[in-house]
Design goal:
With 149 residues, the protein is an all-alpha fold. The protein has 5 helices and no strands.
Length: 149
């Protein structure tokens, strides 16, 4: 009788494990530099209400720096701290390029929004929320954000 009960329990456990494996896993999207640049451009254009000419310039800047960031991530064998420093250098260059294109008022708004997003991300991390589950959405950029600053 014990063997029958143990066999039934084992069978139920195996079925339960198989059912878990059958559920689709939330796949992490791979973002191309073009998708990253497009997303960033749309976000900045929406936040700052840019005209077409400025939007085009911002788009070119975003594509250039998205390519650098993606290449750095793919080729990086460095430690996490080294990667962080390299990414910060790229962001700094991007900010300088933005500053040349945007008005002082728009650049200030851009920096303010970025800082708000950074604080929101830190809060999410402090609360233990899983940012990977939503592709890095803790940046106040929508639930499908392709980048992480």
């Amino acid at each position: 009788m014990k063997k029958l009960i143990l066999s039934a329990i084992a069978a139920l456990m195996i079925c339960g494990l198989q059912a878990q494996d059958a559920r689709p896993q939330k796949a992490r999207q791979e973002f191309t530099p073009e998708k990253i640049a497009q997303f960033e451009t749309e976000r900045v254009t929406k936040d700052l209400k840019l005209d077409k000419e400025t939007k085009q310039k911002i788009s070119e800047i975003n594509l250039r720096f998205a390519k650098e960031q993606v290449a750095l991530r793919q080729a990086n064998n460095a430690k996490r701290e080294e990667l962080r420093k390299q990414m910060e250098a790229i962001r700094s260059e991007k900010d300088k390029a933005y500053e040349k294109v945007l008005s002082p008022k728009d650049f200030a708004i851009y920096k303010q929004k970025r800082e708000e997003a950074r604080k929101k991300m830190q809060e999410r991390r402090a609360n233990g929320e899983n940012n990977d589950a939503d592709s890095g959405a803790g940046r106040d950029r929508g639930s499908d954000s392709p980048t992480r600053d």
